[in-house]
Each structure stands twice: as structure tokens, then as C-alpha cells.
Amino acid sequence: MKDISDIHGHLIAGEWQRGDDSRPNVNPSDTRDIIGLYACAGRDEVDRAVGAARAAFQTWAFSGPQARHELLDAVGTELLTRKDEIGRLLAREEGKTLPEAIGETARAGQVFKFFAGEALRVTGDVQQSVRPGIDVEVSREPVGVIALITPWNFPIAIPAWKIAPALAYGNCVVLKPAELTPGCAHVIAQLLHKHGCPPGVFSMVMGSGSVVGDALVSHPDVDAVSFTGSAATGSRIASTCGGLRRKVQLEMGGKNPMVVMDDADLKTAVQACLNGSFFSTGQRCTASSRLIVQAGIHDAFVQELARQMRALRVGDALQGDTQIGPVVDERQLASNLEYVELARREASEVIGGERLDLAAPGFYQAPALFLGTKNDARINREEIFGPCATVIRVDDFDEALAVANDTDFGLSAGICTSSLKQATLFRRKVEAGMVMVNLPTAGVDYHVPFGGRKGSSFGPREQGRYAAEFYTVTKTTYQSA
Ligand code: NAP
């Protein structure tokens, strides 16, 4: 029987509330390890959280930047100070390796620090009117109550890069983290609470997307929704928000191309693809999932990449020598294995990809390379979201660029080449929100915009000062002397 005192509660109106229902947070490296019980909300909790946010909004919106700066700075400092301990929790609940998890926690701290600064730099614009004797001022104001819905694959960085700008610009927030990884979001809630976030300014309700997520997105008192997750869920949320004429920002999946040209440095190209395709168990929206390789370098590249991929150590996320942690859960693993089966029909050769039975019961999979594939195959059209990459052979730069752009997605795209001309043409012509030259498609800075094109994103960019586009509304004021 559950001990109610052990349940990690929701944070609503400045109070921890446990409710009647909870679910275990399970370590994917070792399913015998239950990290904790986390409360599951229903529509009532969502109502209370949104009501508290609405009640707090007028005061917070006019509280001035100093209080916001201090709150975000304090949370950022504590995340950075405690990055090893919180990173360990992240590795336990999500399954990325300890160094990756500590790095993600530090990133969350840096994001809070960045937006602590941005809170002090909200600027406007004073212009002369075309009518003599009138002043025109364009100012930025907070949007209101913002619902944030986040996925499991970056359980601390993504909540951070939504919460921090939302609060910095004077909004009130209700966060629903992914049901699979509530632990890190719970830590952020604890820190905001501890460092004096006023009741209702930040609330967190945990639970399923179909109940809690849906209740938030369609709640009449929510002004805007920022979502990161799959394209399918994003489309549903876009329809709901469109019908309600509600501001919405969607960051969704990818099928990111990495082009390797004949003149690429082989070592650089292999490292970029090994990292981009398989690190973080391939569970990154920016993962290099289609490797588009020119004929002259193809065989040497594939041979070396396959050799290094086979040597990657798959294991418990907390073990020091692990390079690839487990897949996040049984459902995702089953989906990955279905794609491996599909690849046996669609590719000329499949290397790796099998389920691994290690000492501890977990969701382990060997990284996989699918060779000899065509870009119109399902394995090249659909996001797999696991440690799997396809290889597509092309003859020249024009074909590589055409294949790179022949996708419904447009998040990140990369090229490995020593030619300035090819790198420049690729940067200009590739249809993606982020372009990488001689770098993995994954791995970005926190002070510049993040986001994609086509089916990968909808609405204004996240991160950096561009985040102001979503988290503020402009007001144009005319004043006669
Ligand atoms: P998901 O299944 O779409 O879930 C994302 C979030 O939406 C979760 O909190 C989920 O709740 C919630 N949700 C599900 N159904 C909902 C509904 N009807 N209404 C409102 N909310 C709902 O995605 P995921 O599997 O967690 O994450 C993987 C996906 O995220 C991949 O496609 C990946 O590419 C994408 N991603 C994109 C970016 C980016 O910035 N572009 C970054 C990271 C990940 P539950 O807790 O019930 O699942």
C-alpha cells in the first residue's frame, strides 16, 4: 500500500497537494528501482492551478524586474551548485548517461541565469508619429497565464527554457511535465517555491497528457500554450488553440539530415555522426537520423562509423563507463524494435539494433545503422526517436541537398565538408531552423534561438532574447502633448 507521505505532490497556489492518485517513477536502467511516487492530477487540480495563476497575474505582471531577476538568479545558482545530485536524479529517471544528465542540469541553471538577466532588459521603442505633436511608444507586456507542456527526453532543460522566460517577462505559469519523468520538474518547482516565488505565479500539475494536458490546453482561462513533444500531439494542440484563438508555440519532431561529402575529414564526420545519431540513446529531436553520404567516401565512412558504433558501451546510465543509456520505457523500445524489423525490409543491410539483456532488468538496445536506404522509405520519413540512423548514398552536392530537404521536418541539418563553397551553399539552401557545419546536428547554445521549420515547429522561436516574441505582447501607445 502507498504511504501518502511519500508521494511527491503538485504545487498549486503555493502549496504542495498530493491528491488521490499517484504513479511510480521507474528507472529505465533498472526497473526494480522506483525513484518515487508522483501525484497524478485530474481536471480539478488543473482548474485550481489556472485559477491561482489568474489571481496572481496582475500583481506579478506589475511587480517590476528586480523580484523576477532575483528569483530566477537564485534558482539558476542552486541548479548549478547541485548539478551533480540533480543530474543523478535525471539519469535515473530518463536514462541518459550521468555526464549527459549533469550537463543538462547545468544547462537548466544557465538558462535561469540568462533569463534572470533578460528580466532586467525588457525594452521598448519610442518613435516619432507621422502626425506632428504625437509620441508613439511600442512596449512589451506579459501575455498572462501560460500553460507549459513538456516531453520526457530533456526533463530539466526544456521545463527550464520555458519557465524562465515566461516568469522573466511577467507571466504566470502552469507546468505539466511528462508523466514518465516528473522528478526533475518537481525539483524546479521545489526551488521556485524555496526561493520565494509568490503563490500562483508558478504551479505544477503532474499527470497524463490526455487528462491534465488536455484540460490545460483547453482551459478557458489560459492565454497561451507552449508545447514540446511529438508532431501528433502538437497538431492536436494547435487545432484546439486555433479554435480558441489562443497563442501557441509548438516544438516537435525531426528527421534531421547529416550530409557527408567526399571532401569531409573522415574522423570529424564519423565523430559528428556517432554523437548526433546515438548519444542520449538517439532520443533527441535534433538527432542525426538520416546520414546522406557521397559515393566516394561512402564505404570508408560506413565501415568506420559501424566499427565505432559497435564499440559503444550500452549500460546503466549511472555506471561510469556507460556511453549509451537505456531507452526511456518499454513502449518506446517496442516502437524502436518495430522500426528495426521494418528496416530489414527497407534497407539493404541492418547493423545492430537488437534488444540487449544486461545484468539489471532495463530497456536496453544496441545502436543501429540501416545501410542502402532510399529517402522515400518509411524509415527515412518517420521519426524513430531511438538509437537508429539510416544511410542514403548520393552522387553529388545537389543530390545531397535535395535529399536533405525532401522531408516533412525541418529542425536541424548538418554538413561535413572541407569546401567553403559547399558549406556556404548548404547554409543558404537547407530548409532547417538550425544548421551545423562540421558539427553534430544536436548540441546547441542557450542564448540564441532554437526551433525549426515545416512540420518541426510552429510559432515564435524559443530561447535567447527571441523568446520575448512568444512570452510578451506588444502595445502601441499614441500620446498627444
Ligand atoms: P508526446 O507524447 O507528444 O508528449 C509530450 C507532452 O505532451 C507530454 O507531457 C504528454 O503527456 C503531453 N500530451 C500528450 N497528449 C496530450 C494531449 N492530448 N493534450 C495535451 N498534452 C498532451 O512527446 P514525447 O514522447 O514526450 O516526446 C518525444 C517527442 O518530443 C519527439 O517527437 C521529439 O522529437 C519531440 N521533441 C521536440 C523537441 C523540440 O524542441 N523540437 C525537443 C524535445 C523533444 P504524457 O506525460 O502523458 O506523455
What do these coordinates show?
- The protein is of the alpha/beta class.
- It has two domains: 274 residues, 3-Layer(aba) Sandwich (Aldehyde Dehydrogenase, Chain A, domain 1); 182 residues, 3-Layer(aba) Sandwich (Aldehyde Dehydrogenase, Chain A, domain 2).
- The chain contains 15 helices and 23 strands.
- The strands form six sheets. A seven-stranded mixed β-sheet has the order 15-18-19-14-13-20-21, with helices on both faces. A six-stranded mixed β-sheet has the order 10-9-8-11-12-22, sandwiched between helices. Strands 1-5-4 form a three-stranded mixed β-sheet, covered by helices on one side.
- α8 links the parallel β11 and β12.
- α4 packs parallel to α5.
- The longest helix has 22 residues.
- The radius of gyration is 23 Å and the shape is globular.
- It starts with 6 loop residues before the first strand and ends with a strand.
- The mean pLDDT is 97.
- NADP nicotinamide-adenine-dinucleotide phosphate binds next to α7 and α8.
SSE arrangement:
Layout: E1 7-8, E2 10-12, E3 15-17, E4 21-26, E5 34-40, H1 43-61, H2 65-81, H3 83-94, H4 98-119, E6 125-128, E7 134-142, E8 145-149, H5 157-168, E9 172-176, H6 182-194, E10 202-204, H7 209-217, E11 224-228, H8 231-243, E12 247-251, E13 256-260, H9 266-278, E14 288-294, H10 295-311, H11 330-346, E15 349-352, E16 355-356, E17 364-365, E18 368-371, H12 378-381, E19 388-394, H13 397-405, E20 412-416, H14 420-429, E21 434-437, E22 457-458, H15 468-471, E23 472-480
